[in-house]
Amino acid sequence: MASLPREPFSLQGGCLCRSVRYQITFPKFDERQILNPNHPPDQPDIRAPLVCFDHCNDCRKASGTPVQTWIICPQEYIRFTLLRRSAGAESPTVDMSGNQLVHPNSASEETYLTHYSSSKSVWRTFCCRCGTNISFVAYEEAGSETLMDLLLGTLDRESLELVGMPEHHIWWDLGIGWVKKLTAEGDGSASGNALPRHPKGDIYQLA
Ligand SMILES: [Zn+2]
């Protein structure tokens, strides 16, 4: 992620059928939100975005990939443009910010973006037209309630190449053996520059 601009920039993404589109807009580096302001005092601030592998069982299933990857951003940085289901409306799309889409609302009925609660206080969204998973929010988890995790693979190619490789492995302890081997071999382990591995979801706790 060292390649991310320090000046303001934006990323674009969406689902396969383009019914769900989003843009993430970042201010300059010094103004980007610190992801967990309550982190241990001896640990450095980590500013948005956080780009990580997620080896947990639920996210593996929800994504349909052997390892999930996220770009984690403040909800207020994200703007969605959602295609309406019915033609003839005054505008073919609905614009909403990330924090307006944490919980199901009228957009869930008027557009193809659909919410699914996979566990307590968690909303995931997906496009019900093409099936692409879009986001995850743990809305009661301290430090996470203002964030939204977007599936890294939903970024448009140019944005994905700009963001670069994930910088953390979270839920390392739940990973599939061959997936951990595959990701670890490519992450610099051989040269002693491996990505930090976190046994669960706390990026300040090391394996
Ligand atoms: Zn779609």
TrEMBL record:
Keywords, alphabetical: Lyase, Metal-binding, Zinc
InterPro entries: CENP-V/GFA, Mss4-like_sf
Keyword Nucleus: no
Domain of life: Eukaryota
Region annotation Disordered: where it falls in the sequence: 188-207
Record flagged with keyword Cytoplasm: no
UniProt-listed Pfam families: GFA
GO MF annotations in UniProt: carbon-sulfur lyase activity; metal ion binding
Signal sequence range: none
Domain (CENP-V/GFA) ranges: 84-172
Stated family: Belongs to the Gfa family.
Protein name, entry field: CENP-V/GFA domain-containing protein
Organism: Helicocarpus griseus UAMH5409
